[in-house]
Write a structure and sequence with these properties.
mainly beta; Porin; eight-stranded antiparallel β-barrel; 1 helix; 12% helix; 56% strand
Amino acid sequence: MAAGAASAQYYEIANRLPGLLSPALSGSLNYKGFVELSGVAGLGDNRANFVGVSTSQGFRYASWFFMGVGMGIDVAMAQRDDGLSDLPPDQQPWYYQRSSSSTKAMLPIFSDFRFNIGPESGTSCYIDLKVGAAWFLGDSYFALRDARMGRGAQFYFKPSIGIRVPVNAQNPRQAFNFGITYQLITSGNNYSRYGNSVTLNSIGASISYEW
């Protein structure tokens, strides 16, 4: 189910791209862009840390609401301290014999919804929701403590909450954002002792610049 939702989200984003690129190229006043750097640390048994950069492009429909699409590139680093990897090869699950790596590049593609709370000209709060799909790049599996994540589409959800600081009062459209970020990645395209569903939960921080 998660894989189907991720694929549907991907096609919806692809269909929106032409309409979003046009105002960006024409200089429409409603166009707005973001570039973001984030780092999150994994939680739970199967956990991984992520460091990544992304960009979102879209429309500002009101001073308090932005909607657009985006993509990024992340480096995922699994934290494998224990688990089935310590077992002799003949006692490990079959998928442990496949090519795998504990460090992988990941490509997220998403819809981005941002809500500002407070006046645009001063320091204010924001809520940001990124929803889409993500893919681990390359032929090898992503090796976790006692699971493997495949190359298929993963459901991607990344909400953030934080503060928005304008560059200056005369140009409030340009601002820096500092936030606390949660990240969820899951699908049924994976392999574990309990089936094909593997979920990664992470929490961390982000900093972004908007124009």
